[in-house]
From TrEMBL:
Classification via Pfam families: Tad
Entry-linked InterPro entries: Tad_N, vWFA_dom_sf
Chain segments annotated as transmembrane: 26-45
Protein name: Putative Flp pilus-assembly TadG-like N-terminal domain-containing protein
Gene3D superfamilies hit by this protein: von Willebrand factor, type A domain
Classification lineage: Bacteria, Pseudomonadati, Pseudomonadota, Alphaproteobacteria, Sphingomonadales
Keywords from the UniProt entry: Membrane, Transmembrane, Transmembrane helix
Tree of life domain: Bacteria
Residue ranges constituting the Putative Flp pilus-assembly TadG-like N-terminal domain according to the UniProt record: 24-69
Keyword RNA-binding attributed: no
SUPFAM superfamilies: vWA-like (SSF53300)
Amino acid sequence: MTSSRPPQHHGAPFLSRLARDTGGNVAVMLAAALFPLLALIGGGVDMGRGYLAQVRLQQACDAGVLAARQRLGASAVVDNSVPSDVASTGQRFFNINFRDGTYGTKSRKFSMTLENDYAISGKASVDVPTTLMKVFGHSKMDISVDCEAVLNFSNLDVMMVVDTTGSMRHTNPGDSLSRLDSLKQTIRNFHAQVEGGKAPSTQVRYGFVPYATNVNVGHLLKDDWVVNEWTYQGREKTGVLIPNGSAGVTYNRNWTSVGGSRTPWTTVSTYKASFNFFGFLDGSSYECNGSQPENTWTYTDTNNGLPYTQLQESPPAVLYIQGKRRVQNGTRYRTVRNGTTCEVQSASDTNYIQTFEEVTEVPAFDNTQWLYGPITRSVSNWRTETEGCIEERDTYQIADYDNVDFSRALDLDIDLVPSAGNPSTQWRPRYPEEIYVRKIKHDDSGVFETKKVRTIDEYVDTGTWWFSDCPARAQKLQEMSSDELNNYLDTLEPFGATYHDIGMIWGGRLLSPTGIFAGENADPDGQQRARHMIWLTDGQTEPYDLAYGVYGVDGLDRRRWDPDTSSDTLAQVVENRFGVACEQVKNRNITVWVVAFGTGLTDLMTQCAGPGRSFEASNAEELNDAFEAIARAMSELRITQ
């Protein structure tokens, strides 16, 4: 019997039934989608951790290179690599900002490189272990970042007010160069760092005011800023000749024996010399204190021929000569010591005749009578007749330095532009060869006399003495190459005494954006310029009332100080006026830095600079450190990538 059912195929009916049966399809589809979903979620989690690690790593890299570049400062690098102390600082800041194991990271690395422009670049990397992504064969993510820090200088004016007094030729303990030569090298290093770090299209200008008793600024002044005539403490001839008070000096010469007899000295008696002890320090001696017979010796002089004159060339004089004849008779006595024995001796003349010349020396020239006092002269040729140092314009003796009247103290008004035809506002050329200080003589005798004096005496000409020296020329603000800087520094030499006020006054004048050089110093449209004064000295105020400085001879001119009435010393007056000038400089939005080199800071210097802007340097290394700190403060430290 045969069946009427179709034949059965085992594979196809199962698949057909499965196709017709929809039960359980969702579970299958979910299982099929699970792996992509896990990859998406796990990747998001791991990528989030990686992103956080990368951001933190970038911050740490930036912190490291910033700290390293700040530490490098203005240091000179000779091997084109990051110095070990700088690298250590950068590594420490990196480690603080990205600690080992942060976000579960491993293999933390950080390295730095010194670039040609003195920027410090860095590279940091870590491994971020994955979690869910491990299922797909990714056990870690490699994260790396780059960073770079540079010390840039924007538009900048730097005025260096430099003490070039005589003490700058000294060498500080431990140094091989003088103070002035050490300063020159430090300035070269400072210039190199600033020039190497300035941004493109940035203008950095440098100015200099060497100061001592004076400042040399004449070449910077316009003709109508200078007076046409001025009065100096000098002297002039009166036209009167005074006979020399030493006329009539007489002496005898050319003795010749012509007759009679004279016995030699003969001992007539002896006695023991006295011994005198004066103490262990003063010693002892023998003396002859005994008596001797009275002399019976006499002589008679008579003229021998006619007198005549003779010219003596050196020293210039006319000799008035009279021949003489002397007849001598009688006995002379004397006592001489021979060891510890005193010998009384005698010699006798019998009509003993000698001829000789009696000479009277009369100077060939009469003495000039001088009129010492204020002498007015034309100064129209001052540009060719002087070195360029000046006397200050009008001022007054200030009693209250907290309330200075700048309408009278025109020297302390650093922005005042002189008015043509108004001498009180103008400067005066310095003529040192005109200066004579009455009534002080070369042996230091005498006292100041403000009145005029007529005399043949020679008073001191202190205008040409060392403490009145004129320093090297000041320089206005200008861009400078290294060669131009070296050429200028070569002009600086150490001479003169220490007057701090005039250095601060003229440093401010040459730097102020609103003063006599406003046309060159004012900010260009849309560009702001930073202004800094670096004021350096190696000593305390050291004025001399005899010196010829920017206020004339203080002991005579008495424009800012009166030795007879002032309660302050001249040094105190100079320091107080320095303080006023410093405040005037800072009022022009100028940052003042004060450096004491080989000396100590005074309270006034520290107050002038302000907190954190004064330095003491006992040697060249510390001086260089101070200038590096100043350069860092002037710069803008920033991240470039």
